[in-house]
User: Fold this.
Amino acid sequence: MGIREELQRLDEELDMEMARAETLANIEALRVRMLGKKGQLTALLRSMGALSAEERPKMGQLINERRERFTQLLDERQQKLQQLEQEMRLKREQIDVTEPRALPRLGNLHPNTLVLNQVVDCLTGLGFEVVEGPEVELDLFNFELMNLPKDHPARDAQDTFYIDDNVVLRTHTSPVQARIMTTRKPPIRIISPGRVYRADEVDATHSPVFHQIEGLVIDEGVSMADLKGTLDAFAKRLYGEDIQVRFRPSFFPFTEPSAEVDLTCVNCRGKGCRVCKNTGWIEVLGCGMVNPKVLDMCGIDSKKYSGFAFGVGLERITMLRYGIQDMRLMYEGDLRFLKQFR
Ligand code: PHE
Assistant:
């Protein structure tokens, strides 16, 4: 076959292959087949040795024109395919930022925390400040300054974990009262939530570790009416506007007079049921007017100032709030229980 015919055939072959080429790899293979060292056009160039001297430059020119044209066609196609590939990749990698994502598994607050937050919210709204005290406490603050001297029988009621003669795991949050009164001047308006410890057996309503929230107000002219008003707001906020507060006389060495506070039974709303043993009332906390002796021991002039204090069990009010029957549920970390408080 002559060179012209051969070139004609290569033109056709290129056209055909170009029509079929879909990928960059196809183009590259075609380039090698036509223009590579062992390619067809190169072979044709080599075969020119057999031509006559006049024919050689003409044929050479024709072959070179092909080389240029083929190169140009292949380059163009290569560019187009590269561009296409780029576009496809961009499309493939596009992220739809508006697409809703799978939500991570969220935890939720412990029921104790939920109720504590409500209490804190309510009382800070009334002007109370939240303070904390240590769980490993001096006997001085836990007992002595709370008017519970070493031989006082009321100590037995809070049978205690002693670290040594002078250090205890606090049996109530009341030592925070002493810490505040010995370091601040009135007016004082604080609440103090935290963990307390008692040598109690575990059962549905007892745990050797539980939580209390202490409240303390000291100023000139503070009366029992202020105490009752505060607890009334607290009870209504937690359990509803229909809940009433009732005071019963009681005894604590650090308050005088002292009271136990009952609320309208949150289960039957006062009608009488199993929870309130048909009385319509449930006991929730202890409180009273700060004993003048305690004020004086802590360096606050009891002739000028008076105050009230209360201490409430967090687990107790949480169980009432949610109708939890067994205190142990709150410490076991069972998700089936905890998930119910979302
Ligand atoms: N500290 C008492 C207790 O743990 C509760 C209390 C606090 C009573 C403040 C009166 C005043 O039982």
In short: Residues 55-93 form the longest helix (39 residues).
